[in-house]
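Suppose a colleague, Dr. K., hands you the sequence of a protein chain of 482 amino acids and asks what its three-dimensional shape might be. Before reaching for any lab equipment, you can write down a predicted structure in token form. Begin with the sequence itself:
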Amino acid sequence: MGLSSDEIDFIANSIEPVIINRTQSTKSENKNVHDRVERILKALDAIDENEFDFSLFSIGEKKIFLESLIEILELETPVLQRYFISKESKQKSPNRKLLYNLSKKDADLYLDQFISDLFIRNEANHRCILSNGDPSFICNYRYSRKESINYRNEATADIRFRIRNFGDFDNLYHNYMKVYLAEIARHNDQKVNTGLYNPVECIYMIDVYIDIFASLLLQTINYCIMMSDKIDYAEKEKVLENIYLEAKESKIDFKEGSKQEILWSFAIYLFFLTRRNSFATELNVQELLEQQMNDPSYVMEVPEDCKYSYKSIDEVPTKKELRKIFLEGKEEKEERFNKRFAEMQNLIDILLLTAGRDLGSEHLQHAKVVYREVIEDDLQYEISSEKIQTANTIARHINKPETPLYEELSSTIFLREKISRGLFREVGLAALYIKKNKVQKCIYEDILSAFTGYDEIQISKNLKRVYAKYHKILLAEYFDKY
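The predicted structure, expressed as tokens, is then:
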């Protein structure tokens, strides 16, 4: 973290009386404050390769930060939650492993509470009076994600429909970019010219548009390029390789933006970690699936005698042929097949509502993919160090009345990605799925690279350059050529 021994001594000596006063302990009981500060700094360094840059701040700001962080670590209520499951902590000192948990690239860690708390503490430290001196106005740092999430879901559904049906990439890009730039301008104006600025609302806006533009780029690659009937397989392979090479070679010179207060800056750093965690989980799942695909026992292509032209299950003339399509020559008792088939159809109806997959239980291709990828495949996914599950095990939890639909967000990512892989395999594009993943990794790496400094407005502008880069690449490598 770049603190000298003298700085650590100064901060420890400054914090010690505060700790004694807050905990009603004696000086002798707090003689390890110096060691504790050193341990905290070491834990902060270990959170990510992209470390929080402590050197930007004055010794006074560092003292404020470490004092606030120690107070948070001593809270009796946890500041980190998990998606889907919210269990009351029975532990003493539930935040004891807070910094260690931040080092985990875990999409299930929910950092919103921690982020909001830091903004609240930042305001308290500076005793900000907002709204032109009206002390009755308090910025809502508990700003709800609900509205922004609803907008994201509507936008990604719109993108999915228009890309799949009309290939409307360029128009969609410009339409959403226009709105995004207007949002940046609005938040920047509020930050500079009024007392009504809410950084939490701005962060959620940025987060939503990361999802929107990532969806636009990936849906375009999936449906306009990989599923295109304009070019053959060899050309698709060439296009994806060219996109990947251009993405790797084309660098963006990002700006860092203005300096923020230290607690504000760390809140922005936590926002970066939120995105790092979700991207890492997706990419780790893809890597796991690719490892399975590289195993000699994995069949990359649907056997020729098991291919089909039917769209609906009802169109398949006999149960024998249906079994052959699903099992691809594998022997299985009819009773077991029928049981699994029923499980599959029930599961599809649930996945339609919960896992972001547009599936139909009577659609033959969808049904076969869910059967093979979720019901039948025994590939194990390490959700945590204590929990390793197959897709089928995850699916079994969905219908249990005593549990939520999902126990982990990463479970939905695993199921969704397996189904995506299976759909590409069904149409003979399994190898292109791997190439697509390489491009997806580049997109995610560029998005994370845009988090320079801790100015959320500048980060939003940096991200605009990322989206523009890939818009330009996709136009040049596909739409302008075919």
